[in-house]
């Protein structure tokens, strides 16, 4: 099973100082989302992320380079997976249930909870809106160049509405990280922990990796 360690970043972070968390995440190890799944075109965006936790939530920063970048969806729980999208799925319990968090390049979020892709319970928009996001996008200016964007996220513990999480210190959980873009000119599916499944499906917790919060 693939595994990573997420370290602690001290401090209190809000929308007003999220750039400070972004800078702190820049200093951490980058993990590659480099398993290209369910396509034979050869097109493969460059994707990595850094992850840590704070006293109040989980911080993630995605780094993306890709040929096509779209940001159509603007409302919480819109189908952002059709845009240029990065995703974070995390499960805390042995029953296989997990949260899915999906974000387009603007930071527009979709979130749900369940045990597989069927019958997922949407996390209410008022709760999802507590996630803080900071987006930085640079579009390519010449032929052969790639669009480059990064997205810093702070997911407060209170967003995990089916759990009472006060701290993640010394905690282990199951997770996976993804990149997709269903409606892009070059649709693609990438994962951090590989998914050896014939049919396209990110909602397979049996293939999640492990995160140790240290």
TrEMBL record:
Gene Ontology annotations of biological process type: carbohydrate catabolic process
Pfam families in UniProt: CBM9_2
Highest taxon in the source lineage: Bacteria
GO MF term set: carbohydrate binding; hydrolase activity, hydrolyzing O-glycosyl compounds
Gene3D superfamilies: 2.60.40.1190
Domain Carbohydrate-binding: 28-213
Protein name, UniProt field: Carbohydrate-binding domain-containing protein
Organism: Mucilaginibacter celer
